[in-house]
Amino acid sequence: MDADHLSNRLATVASYVPKGSRLADIGTDHAYLPVNLLKRGLIAGGVAGEVVRGPFENAAHEIQREGLTDRLTARLANGLKAIEPADQIDTVVIAGMGGTLITQILTQDFDRLAGVKRLILQPNVGEMVVRRFLMTHGFQLVTEEILAEDGHTYEVLVADRADQPETYNDEELRFGPYLLQEHSAIFIAKWQRELARTQAVRKQVQQAAVVPEDKVAQLTAEIQEIEEVLHRVSA
Ligand code: SAM
């Protein structure tokens, strides 16, 4: 992969960046995403934020090599601290991390999102905490996409600023309100794997010398929930 050849995962994320945006890509690594969008004339400019020096230097080098330093700035900073008011960022991407870390980054410096209208988040795991964050912090999910690449399944969550985001129940938060409607083969395969994994964990827990009944009950509830959803979407 490079800035001219994004993975399907990053290309999907890129496809939800509104044309002409001022973008902050937080945890940018090589800055392939913003460099790609800028080279194609799809964003006006922005910031490539990285907290680790090695990837930050990769990003800075990539931006310089492509001659984009006048419109795209690499910043060594923790999370949203990479964003300054003068950047006039309106769109933020955080991709390729766990949902808990994404949520921590967004919560830590929430005030820095003041001018941001769209969040495009791609948690590798822990999508539920991300959806809950959006719902409780004034962002309405507008679309979700699920894709498979290189043996992994990824979800891309797109949310826009809203006065009163829709309230979702636990099932919608866990599985995704849009993905639940779609019945895609990738979604079904993901939850079949998750069902098998949860069943295996329950079996193991049940073999303990002292069986933790609370844990068994919790796993049983999860298994039932997944089975119900799979039954509905496979029907
Ligand atoms: N976003 C790219 C992608 O989706 O391909 C890179 C994903 S890479 C797995 C995660 C990157 O996030 C790493 O380069 C890591 O250093 C960076 N990162 C982790 N925590 C961060 C934070 N708090 N602030 C900024 N960057 C962070």
From TrEMBL:
Coiled-coil regions in this chain? none
The entry's keywords? Methyltransferase, Transferase
- Gene Ontology MF term list: tRNA (adenine(22)-N1)-methyltransferase activity
In its UniProt record, which GO terms are filed under biological process?
Answer: methylation
Organism domain of life: Bacteria
> One Pfam family for this entry, by name?
TrmK
List the PANTHER family: TRNA (ADENINE(22)-N(1))-METHYLTRANSFERASE (PTHR38451:SF1)
Official protein name in the record: SAM-dependent methyltransferase
Q: Which organism is it from?
A: Levilactobacillus paucivorans
